[in-house]
Design goal:
The chain is an alpha/beta fold. It is 24% helix and 25% strand. It has eight helices and 17 strands. The strands form three sheets. Strands 1-2-3-5-7-10-9-8-11-12-15-16-17 form a 13-stranded mixed sheet. Strands 4-6 form a two-stranded parallel ribbon. A two-stranded antiparallel sheet has the order 13-14. It is elongated. The N and C termini lie far apart (59 Å).
Length: 353
């Protein structure tokens, strides 16, 4: 193996590094070697795939604690099953710029994310592998650590680290069993995290709380969530600019109900609308819908209550875009309300699917 970590020799199942010059780059696929060798302490890039990945995330973290020069870490396709695990002592990777954790058990990924600090990371890809035998309780406990105040992952995603704002867009997609976070920044920097979770609402609440507590979070027009299952909007209320609910009747109904509500502003004794800074609202009802009269009633009630000001409450800020998409045959009465809704919310648009 050459000093730069590349080898022209045939791969073996297990091997031990001989003495030699320090390596700068190491890439292994389905072969194993002790990773505690002093020749690896100056690694700049480390890529492990398949059986080359330490089966225990704690073992990987012990290795990473010695790699202070590491700039790129790529861990993929671990095939072992994970049991109950906990986060470990924090490991700081001061030079890490790129992190990839792909097709890995959700518990393994959660341990790594809960335990490392990457102040300079500008590219991150996390993709959980779905696994029915992992402990949901362990994953939820780790999520609470990852997104607790003081951890820097939310700040990194939202561009909260550094003196100048860099965020161009932050989107959170919430689907049954999976949550995806996408964050793009000016000049450089992109993050895509795809979490497999049996309990999506639990992580959704943690995410909303984490982003809302950032001292300088994303401005509302840059901050979007896309939902296809029911969630609580209150943790997202202060920072949300775009809301898309689609293809799930209960999710669409809950959005209509919650946006009709006001909540107390902490420490002031005053009340305000949930998600007061919303500028884009898109609701797409599924083609197969039942009790559509209820949905029509909820929509009309929302518009009258939130934006008309007729009931003595201060009207919420008008959205720049308010689209409702549905099957016209299943929502026959909605088109008769369109003119009334547009008088109250001029940006309203009703479309068929």
């Amino acid at each position: 193996m050459s000093p730069d970590g590349r080898s022209g020799t045939p791969a073996l199942d297990t091997f031990v590094l001989s003495e030699g010059l320090p390596l700068k780059h190491l890439s292994l696929c389905d072969v194993t070697t002790p990773l505690e060798s002093p020749r690896l302490f100056n690694l700049i890039t480390l890529a492990l795939r398949g059986s080359a990945v330490p089966w225990s995330p704690q073992s990987l973290l012990r290795v990473l604690s010695s790699l202070r020069r590491l700039e790129a870490l790529d861990i993929q396709a671990l095939r072992f099953r994970m049991g109950n695990v906990e986060s470990s002592t924090s490991v700081i990777l001061p030079r890490l710029k790129e992190l990839i954790l792909s097709e890995m058990p959700s518990t393994y990924n959660a341990v790594i994310l809960a335990s490392i600090r990457t102040p300079l990371c500008s590219h991150m890809e996390v993709r959980d592998r779905r696994s029915g035998d992992e402990s949901q309780g362990s994953v939820e406990a780790l999520d609470a650590v990852i997104w607790e105040p003081g951890n820097n992952l939310a700040a990194v995603l939202a561009g909260g680290i550094g003196s100048k704002p860099t965020l161009r867009r932050l989107g959170v997609h919430i689907n049954p069993g999976r949550i995806q976070i996408e964050s793009n920044h000016t000049h450089h920097g992109s993050y895509t995290l795809k979490f497999a979770r049996a309990n999506s609402p639990q992580l959704t609440t943690l995410l909303g709380t984490a982003f809302s507590q950032l001292p300088s979070g994303p401005t509302p027009e840059l901050y979007s969530i896309f939902i296809s299952e029911p969630i609580d909007l209150l943790p997202w209320s202060e920072r949300l600019g775009t809301l898309v609910a689609k293809d799930n009747t209960e999710a669409c109904r809950l959005v209509l109900q919650q946006l009709s509500q006001r909540h107390p502003i902490s420490g002031t004794g005053e009340m305000d609308w949930i998600c007061p800074k919303l500028s884009v609202i898109i609701i797409r009802f599924p083609r197969v819908a039942e009790d559509t009269a209820r949905d029509e009633e909820l929509l009309l009630s929302l518009v009258r209550h939130r934006w008309s000001g007729d009931d003595g409450l201060a009207a919420a800020t008008q959205p720049q875009r308010f689209d409702v998409l549905c099957d016209r045959k299943r929502f026959p009465n909605l088109w008769s309300f369109e003119d009334e809704i547009k008088r109250i919310v001029p940006s309203f648009r009703l479309g068929g699917i």
